[in-house]
Amino acid sequence: MSGGVDSAVAAARAAEAGHDVTGVHLALSENPKSFRTGARGCCTIEDSHDARRAADVIGIPFYVWDLAERFREDVVDDFIAEYEAGRTPNPCLRCNEKIKFAALLDKALALGFDAVCTGHYATVVLREDGTRELHRASDMAKDQSYVLGVLDDRQLAHAMFPLGDTLTTKAEIREEAARRGLFVAKKPDSHDICFIADGDTQGFLAKRLGTAPGDIVDESGAVLGSHEGAYGFTIGQRKGLRIGHPAPDGKPRYVLDISPVDNTVTVGPADALDVTALTAIRPRWCGRPPTAGPATYTAQLRAHGGETEVTAELVDGTDLRVAFTEPVRGVAPGQAIVLYDGSRVVGSATIATTERRVRAGA
Fold first, then answer.
1. Quick one: where's region Interaction with tRNA (predicted)?
2. Which end of the chain has fewer CB atoms within 10 angstroms, the N or the C?
3. What would the pLDDT profile of 124-155 be if each residue is shown by its tens digit?
4. Is residue 209 part of an annotated ligand binding site?
5. Number of domains in the chain
6. Out of 43, 95, 117, 286, which one is annotated catalytic?
7. Is residue 341 exposed (0-12), middle (13-18) or buried (19+ Cβ within 10 Å)?
8. Catalytic annotation on 286?
């Protein structure tokens, strides 16, 4: 129970359905005041109090489990290391993989619980052969299956998402919370990274990695400006480049590449961002793995992004080779690509390299 409205309603629905429910709030910060405050996150003392009050109203036991050290090692340190290496990680995906459905699940099973129940909007389908599938939520507007695409068959077997199969708007979830007497009914949602207190990712990284001055260059290698740390940029970024003078054609420039080896950031025109194919590593399958050989899927590349048609194939059992039917932009190493077969989540992998469309005159 994060202290938000979704997990509170999920717990209430699970209890109402007859499950023996225990509320657990995860203490993920060694210094809770360093995480987001003002009811906007999920890791503060305030959030813990909100979760406890919700559990009291539902009438279930409540505990706080300290996973701060594991969270720092598996999520925060990984986040910093990925940016330092010039990649763009997704900490929410990592948290689901390593904390909520690994550390938390392992402890829960050891204590005799059957499953971890969360307020995510997704659906687990039990097949006739006893295997499980992860599907999108009934309401696509709230679907969160992308950040759950790292869950494997064992984790799915011990996962419950009571909000995923109901066509209810967020306003209706809040109304339900109010009817149940849950104080969090009007609590704002959290959208930012929970462990970056002020939402300033670049400032957070600078404090931990220090300044590392380098050049901002164009595709020919000509120096256009300087930066204080390549880790402060992401592929596709347009604002905050501080180049100082426009491109010869007067069009905006975007971050095309981040090279930690020579500490340079390369910028160029928007069409230079067009990605036609990629290779992803560390694939994780949600339930049964895909059949051998290339197959057509749809893919999602970011938590709130749309779907795009792809052809994907597992190569040498370790790498996922993906080709896009139409070029896509803003694809960065370190991001997760999640494959879908209709509403079913096939699995996910971490983008390692991308291939760009060859441009005339480039």
1. 142-144
2. C
3. 998 888 889 999 998 888 899 999 999 999 99
4. no
5. 2
6. 95
7. middle
8. no
CATH number of the domain residue 52 falls in: 3.40.50.620
Classify residue 331: in a domain, yes or no: no
Backbone phi and psi for residue 304, each to the nearest 5 degrees, phi listed first: -115, 25
Rounded to two decimals, what is the model's pTM? 0.91
Active site residue 194: yes
The helix/strand count (H/E) of the chain reads as: 9, 16
Contact between residue 362 and residue 271 where contact means Cβ atoms under 8 Å apart: no
Task: Please tell me which residue in 92, 117, 194, 286 is annotated as part of the active site.
Answer: 194
173 close to 162: Cβ distance less than 8 angstroms: no
Residue 157 lies in a domain: no
Judge contact between 94 and 348, C-beta under 8 A. no
What DSSP state is assigned to residue 76?
I
Task: Report pLDDT for 60.
Answer: 98
Tell me, yes or no, whether 18 lies in a domain. yes
Question: What domain range includes position 61?
Answer: 5-119+162-180
User: Is 119 among the annotated ligand-binding positions?
Assistant: yes
99, 36: one domain: yes
Residue 362: burial class (beta carbons within 10 Å; 0-12, 13-18, 19+): exposed
Distance (Å, whole) CA 11 – CA 5: 10
Q: By CB neighbour count within 10 A (0-12 exposed, 13-18 middle, 19+ buried), where does 37 fall?
A: middle
Domain assignment present for residue 54? The answer is yes
Span 245-280, pLDDT tens digits: 778 888 899 999 999 999 999 999 999 999 999 999
